[in-house]
Amino acid sequence: MINRKKYLGGQYAFMRKLKNGCFTMAILFLAQCILIYFQCQFQFQDVVYYTQQYWHNYVFDIILLYFLYLAFLVIVNRKTYASFLLLSTTLLFSIANYLKLNYRSEPLLPSDFTMIFEINHIIQMINKVHIIVSIGAILLLIAAFFLLNRFKSKPVHTGKQRLLVSLLLCFVFYSFLNSNHANNPYKVIATSFGITDSYWDLKEDYSSNGPIAGFIKNLDIQVMEELPEDYSYEAVSDIVEKYKEKAIQMNCDTGTLEDHTVIFVLSESFTDPLRIPGLELSDDPIPFIRSLLNETTSGLLLGANYGGGTANVEYEVLTAFSTNFFHPSLLIPYTLLVPNLHEAPSFTNLFHQKIAVHSYNASLYRRKDVFEQFGFDSFIYEGGNVDLSYKETLDNSTYISDASAYEEVLDIVRKDTEGNLFILLTTMQNHSPYDENKYNNHFEVLNELNEQEKSRIETYVQGLNYTDMATKQFIEEIETMDKPVTVVFFGDHLPPDVFEGFDEDSEQENVVFYETDYFIYSNFEAEIVDNPIVSPNMISPIVLEQLNVELTPYYALMFELQKTVPVMRWGEYFLLTDEMFVYEDELPAIVQELLNDYRMIQYDINAGEQYAIELGMFDLER
After folding, report:
1. What is the DSSP letter of 304?
2. Reported pTM
């Protein structure tokens, strides 16, 4: 005979477990919906598209969220609190992710948390509406937490159960932290669900794989995409000796940098707007810079990013190392690599005096640590130990003007009596946002666009015009100086969210949106070097060629690369002889050998034992 009491008790327990399971699934599903909705920036049609296309990846994301939920459950041992913590964490992550996508066209990354203590500076770049909404969301979460405290809940796990679940979670989270290693359990399972790598477009990567899976892939930072199989002291030594001989040959009829002043000007978000396909303006905003582009060593700088990536351009220009060879997880070498190196050779090695100037504070990209590693004697920035002397702004903008930034540099050059001076100036004037009232606009967009699109473009273009006028005054001052001064001017990337309406080809990359402009001006007679299109890492060898000065073995290698493959990005190379992009295995054998030498040195310095420094790769050979 059936024990009715036992039967009903078992049935009740089953229904309770079913109810709890459904509640947990509902919480996980809600958390995933929040993540995707914010990731798609509130575009419901995108949510539907990605959910239909990548539902299997989203199922995997829900499983990942469950592990996070378990972690909260182990910590608080209350179902209601664990659910609240999961939803709160999800919402805060989603807000931060949305803001990063909105302002940088890039999702939230683990490396961004290195800047958490500089939150006040980041807030200055966000518009008031987003700040108010974010604060409101936080206040609502706090209110919800106090309301939750009114309800009593029972412990879920015993002490032994919590210990066992904790051990399981340790294994799981360890796998997360090693997500990019071969045969890692997480990677194997993720791949079986359909998780793929789209590091070249992180926004798409997060959208197709799910924000949690996308975020986890960036926890495991590896330095190089491919590790040289024959890496050893002997292999590096052979390369160093080869280019020592080449450097000695190249240095026979060259001068030195002893009396030279070289100024690198990274002009924030600078590009020639007249190269944007279809854009019509009432006038040319950069007539002076255009004249320099026509009269000096100049061309296009083809970068790897659109709408951001200042620090990576700065890194490539200073080190001549290409981010093309770094592992996709190493998104920002400044924050994740350079401060951890024993030594960090760069263009500054060629100078006795080196000064960095930034017309903003030093909170982003760990510049203070990076510039110390690069051997800068002084770093002048807003609020620094050596503060800026000129901080004027333009119209209603809050950013320091280019005219002030140039005046800061001119003061340094005027005071210098020794020569052999290198200055890096990173400007801030044309940084986003491009609000309607930022400048008194004198340029008009002639295209049929909505008022908001027009306003953004006109504001950006007015900023370029201010840069043009300031650069004219700067160059005129340099022209009057009785010592050799060379100015290397380049843009880092196109502005975010300004010209998107002109990018008609959504299926394929529109390369013009990755191109900025550069010129190299000297106030003395110098050879004009023909380099119509280059990667940022090729700038320094071009400068040395124009100045006709002696090279280190490293720059002898870079000189040969520049003459064969002046552009390298995304695994493709612009082969100068054929004037087309090809993959590495399509390059001539002699060029592949050059690339292998270059890759070996880059690996040695950034992930290896730095044998090349000891062997003299970065020292002048006479």
Report:
1. S
2. 0.78
